[in-house]
From TrEMBL, chain B:
One of its GO terms (cellular component) is plasma membrane. InterPro entries: AAA+_ATPase (IPR003593), ABC_transporter-like_ATP-bd (IPR003439), ABC_transporter-like_CS (IPR017871), ABC_transporter_ATP-binding (IPR050763), P-loop_NTPase (IPR027417). Its main location: membrane. Residues 21-271 form the ABC transporter domain. It comes from Streptosporangium carneum. One of its GO terms (biological process) is response to antibiotic. It is a peripheral membrane protein. It is found in: Cell membrane. One of its GO terms (molecular function) is ATP binding. Keywords: Antibiotic resistance, ATP-binding, Nucleotide-binding, Transport. This is Multidrug ABC transporter ATP-binding protein.
């Protein structure tokens, strides 16, 4: 177990080194979501959403988008290109376990994501004067979100023939995340069944928990009223349940679809 | 001397030695395609065993089952007495693997690649004696480049890549990548080394240097299973070898045994292109093979069977008597022992 953790940490450091050396990845993973966050805040400027200023509402929802870029796209790219270049095969032929190989990349993505969330926190603090209310709940949601999208990435890498195609296979997921999840407006405001679907999307519980934990208010529903720390935890339980259900589904999908090597022939 | 035999189910004759690798009745299937069709062999400790064969013969598939990349469809496989798939964690620190191709992160430098692998490996419990001159870090236009410690440089010196320590892997030639691959495989002083076509893409000098590394490893007691297309490589390195074709082992043994099994070759040229089998003699039970070329007829006999030391001599007397009796001249008469290539081609169902 200790060896697995050591191996995962070494592979996570490797991933961060390689991201830092690749300007395209650096832009896509780090800058693109921040740029989109800025655009969203411009669009929401001067309005109030669910009882909070529009920019604050958007910025506390943007981590949902960052999961798409820093974790999902990044890892689909990484798993796919490493499979095609036989890097995964080489690692699997060495001493690291499968969990350490895949978990190491996920750990690197977690570090990137938490770094982005921290940057976002600084942004919100400086522009809106708001500090996070419940950091442990915030970090738990971030961690589970990374686990979920790392599993999705492993599954999607299997249907991605090469790294160049990764941008296309991830596009539907990113679009659904952008449009269907409560990043810029509450999920329940969507008409009819779309609201129900939006509430069940995998990124929705992550955004709801992170926003509620950040603002110390009820954004699990569309209420927006203040919550105590205990109420934040109890209020988060349904969302955590949904998130865990998605993680189980993601794990099954990844287990079923993931490939360590390119297809033969 | 043992006579090489079809070894699908054969004993290797190494029963008195510890078998580091044991393969029994191995079958490997991918969908409808059976890549390996009942292969059995063993490799003794400290031995170099070569698997020869054409592309698609089943060499790499056999190797990959032994490396634990895939469970065997049928049959038994043991490396150091362990199941490569089920006991992977116990086995991996004791084996080194050189893949047939690829598997590198192009944006890492050579030294970083070795460092990464070192960080992901524990030694096989044997002393690691590799040691070279430490490489200091330095500031470049691309930023700070990490140096390399003595062990990293030692393994790079071993494979002749010390001058490439700071080079990105994507800038290496194919042969240099093979040498880096070998460096990673031997880094933790493994007990068993799997080398899949280790010298493909190398220039002759690098190939000979690699052979030297492999021979030194054998001298230190490392057991090596290698696949190769180069017959010269197998002849130079292998204590024993097996020739695979279409998923089966067709012949195996020491190089001498396999070559002896391929027989002696008698060849000559007759004038005219209207020759037929009927007018030529049978020599030691061997019928002639005829090829019509250049206005003449090339005739060859492959002499096999008992009396490897005397069978060519025994065949020549009746051949010369036939020539004298029929007024024929045996042009370019050649008598030679079979080679590994002859044995290889014979397995493939072709004549050399």
């Amino acid at each position: 177990m200790r060896t697995d953790v050591l191996h995962a940490v070494r592979l996570a450091r490797l991933d961060l080194t390689l991201v830092a050396r690749n300007t395209t990845v650096l832009f896509n993973v780090l800058l693109m979501p921040l740029l989109m966050a800025w655009l969203f805040t411009q669009a929401q400027g001067g309005v109030s959403v669910a009882g909070v200023p529009g920019p604050v509402y958007v910025l506390t929802g943007v981590p949902g988008l960052m999961l798409g870029f820093a974790v999902f796209i990044n890892l689909v790219n990484s798993y796919t290109s490493r499979r095609e270049e036989l890097v995964l095969k080489r690692l699997r032929g060495g001493q690291p376990s499968a969990a350490a190989v895949l978990g190491g990349s996920a750990l690197g993505a977690l570090a990137l994501f938490l770094g982005q969330v921290a940057l976002l926190g600084v942004w919100i603090r400086r522009s809106e004067g708001v500090l996070p209310s419940n950091v442990p709940l915030l970090v738990l949601a971030a961690f589970l979100g990374v686990v979920l999208f790392a599993l999705f990435a492993a599954a999607f890498s299997a249907i991605t023939p090469n790294a160049e195609m990764a941008q296309i296979t991830v596009l539907p997921v990113i679009l659904i995340m952008m449009v269907g999840s409560p990043i810029a407006f509450p999920a329940g405001e969507m008409p009819g069944p779309l609201g129900t679907i939006s509430n069940l999307l995998p990124v929705t519980p992550i955004v709801k928990i992170m926003r509620s934990a950040y603002l110390g208010a009820d954004h699990f529903s569309s209420g927006g009223g203040a919550l105590s720390t205990l109420e934040q935890w109890t209020g988060a339980l349904p969302s955590l349940g949904l998130l865990l259900a998605w993680i189980v589904a993601g794990a099954l999908l990844a287990r079923w679809l993931f490939r360590w090597e390119p297809r033969r022939g | 001397m043992r006579t090489p035999q079809p070894a699908d189910t054969a004993d290797t004759g190494a029963a008195d030695l510890e078998h580091v690798i044991e393969v029994g009745g191995l079958r490997q299937r991918y969908g409808d395609f059976e890549a390996v069709r009942g292969v059995s062999f063993t490799v003794a400790r400290g031995e170099i065993f070569a698997l020869l064969g054409t592309n698609g013969a089943g060499k790499t598939t056999t190797m990959e089952v032994l490396e634990g990349f895939a469970p065997a469809t049928d049959g038994t496989v043991r490396v150091l007495g362990l199941d490569p798939v089920g006991q992977r964690r116990a086995l991996r620190p004791r084996v080194g693997i050189m893949l047939q191709e690829g598997g590198f992160l192009g944006d890492l430098t050579v030294a970083e690649t070795v460092d990464l692998w070192k960080g992901l490996s524990e030694d096989a419990g044997r002393p690691v004696t590799l040691s070279g001159a430490e490489l200091p870090g330095r500031l470049t236009l691309m930023g700070w480049t990490k140096g390399a410690d003595r062990r990293t440089m030692g393994v790079l010196e071993l494979v002749g890549l010390e001058s490439k320590a700071r080079t990105r892997v994507k800038q290496l030639s194919g042969g240099q990548k093979r040498r880096l691959d070998l460096a990673l495989a031997v880094l933790s002083a493994p007990e068993v080394l799997f080398l899949d076509e280790p010298t493909t893409g190398m220039d002759p000098e690098a190939r000979r240097a690699t052979w030297k590394v492999i021979e030194d490893l054998r001298a230190r007691g490392t057991t090596v299973l290698l696949t190769t297309h180069y017959l010269e490589e197998a002849e130079r390195l292998a204590d024993r070898l097996a020739i695979m074709h279409e998923g089966r082992i067709h012949t195996y043994g020491t190089v001498g045994e396999v070559v002896a099994g391929s027989g002696d070759l008698v060849s000559f040229r007759l004038s005219g292109t209207t020759r037929s089998y009927d007018e030529l003699p049978i020599l030691n039970g061997a019928a002639p093979a005829l090829t019509y070329a250049g206005g003449g007829t090339e005739v060859s006999y492959t002499l096999t069977g008992e009396g490897a030391d005397t069978r060519a001599h025994a065949a020549l007397s009746p051949l010369l008597a036939w020539a004298d009796g029929n007024g024929e001249t045996l042009g370019q008469l050649t008598v030679r022992r079979g080679t590994l290539e002859d044995a290889f081609m014979r397995v493939l169902g072709e004549t050399p």
